[in-house]
Amino acid sequence: MSDRFEISPESLRAASRGMRRCAEDFAAAVERLRGRVLGAGSPWGGDEFGTLFGTAYTGCTELGLRALDHLAGQLGDVAEALGRMGANTQGTDEANAAGFRRLEGGVR
């Protein structure tokens, strides 16, 4: 096990782009699922049992789709946070480098 930890602004930006693609792909898959599930109509029939099943199925489906929509949003939020981390890391690196240059200039 390594006792080093390294990050770079570019690796964070790359992770942000990758996570953004995942979030977009996931959201598109949820939309395709929504179209298939909700576009199927009500094949269980209109009798008492079919109506009961249909009501439960519809409620569960809507709840599940809302949860998947929320997950897609959370993936997008992670992508944004990784991008901000990359920008913050770069800003901190640049500020630290400038501070060391000032110290080095004062020592001579």
TrEMBL record:
Family annotation (InterPro entries): ESAT-6-like_sf
Official protein name in the record: WXG100 family type VII secretion target
Organism encoding this protein: Carbonactinospora thermoautotrophica
Lineage, opening ranks: Bacteria, Bacillati, Actinomycetota, Actinomycetes, Kitasatosporales
